[in-house]
Amino acid sequence: MPEGHSVHRIARQFDRNFVGREVRASSPQGRFSEGAEFLSGRELLEAKAVGKQMFLGFDGDAWLRVHLGLYGAWDFAGEILVDPTIASANGRMGQTNQRGTDLDAPILDDAGENSLTSIGAPRRTRVHVRMSEQTKGLEDEGDQWPPPVVGQVRVRLLTDVTCADLRGPTACHVQTPDEMLATIAKLGPDPLVGDPAEGEERFTAAVRKKGTPIALLLMDQAVVSGIGNVYRAEMLFRARLNPHTPGKQVPEDVVRELWRDWVRLLAIGVETGQMMTMDDLSPDEYRAAMASRDDRHWVYHRAGLPCRVCGTEIALEEIGARKLYWCPSCQR
């Protein structure tokens, strides 16, 4: 499932390429025909992400809410103007200790986690790019415009020069402004939405009053927005925190540091397009980590392998119907 950084990056793509333009909407699959007809011909006024959900605001007080869920993805095609605020994934950004490192070639993720904006910005080019947790990279789209519909496209949004196709979302429907605000009100704080200090207070209060294991609380989108399975495992390891600890038993200073770590990691994810969770890497180590997620994480997807810190075998268990990776020694 796409985690918070991916959804924020998608929202930024819409902000650069669709906001301020009239949008034609259709539903090639047919499952969103009524909503597409309602939205088509309207100007897109705003694109925003809150955690794992994205909201596209159209004139006439109409909002399109999209939750990608486990299988959803956006495909962009046409003339894509990349957000210049997102750095290229060339090894120079995303970790403060790496700034100034002379790594001149872009780093391409062999697991396909890059998106267009992590390859180079700003630029204008005719490409096809998938925006999801498992980004497939760039493909030549040829001269046909609009591009042919491929697969089960729930929604196609089209300007004169840019196309966005949505496939496989968990949620996709039109909302009124009040419905959009009500949806957001049910979500926990997102470091990139509102005041991070206020978000820290909300997160701390929510965690400290619950007897639920912290591993489940971090995945509860009503407690904190945007954290998924990868960030959950990595944040708990970085805090050296036993995932089964009830929230109300986690010391307040540790809860606050979890929030501040999420602020840092989310910013890195949005900037690079990759869930980089390791610090203090040499330039060569950083380049390897940016190119392969096997070198990017402390515990995630490393079941049975030795802990990078203590050598203990990384444990894997199921909690809340999701896989949890952790070190029984470092996270006692």
Automatic annotation (TrEMBL):
Q: Which family does it belong to?
A: Belongs to the FPG family.
Q: Which residues form the FPG-type domain?
A: 298-332
Q: Name one GO biological process term.
A: base-excision repair
Does the record carry Ion transport as a key word?
no
Entry's EC annotation: 4.2.99.18
Q: Which Gene3D superfamilies match?
A: 1.10.8.50, MutM-like, N-terminal
Listed GO MF terms? class I DNA-(apurinic or apyrimidinic site) endonuclease activity; damaged DNA binding; oxidized pyrimidine nucleobase lesion DNA N-glycosylase activity; zinc ion binding
Formamidopyrimidine-DNA glycosylase catalytic domain boundaries: 2-100
Originating species:
Microbacterium bovistercoris
Q: State the organism's lineage.
A: Bacteria, Bacillati, Actinomycetota, Actinomycetes, Micrococcales
User: Per its Swiss-Prot or TrEMBL entry, what cofactor is needed?
Assistant: Zn(2+)
Which InterPro entries does the UniProt record give? FPG_cat, FPG_N, H2TH_FPG, Ribosomal_uS13-like_H2TH, Znf_DNA_glyclase/AP_lyase, Znf_FPG/IleRS
Name of the protein in question: DNA-(apurinic or apyrimidinic site) lyase
Q: Provide the alphabetized UniProt keywords.
A: DNA damage, DNA repair, DNA-binding, Glycosidase, Hydrolase, Lyase, Metal-binding, Multifunctional enzyme, Zinc, Zinc-finger
Q: Name one Pfam family in it.
A: Fapy_DNA_glyco
Give the source's domain of life in one word.
Answer: Bacteria
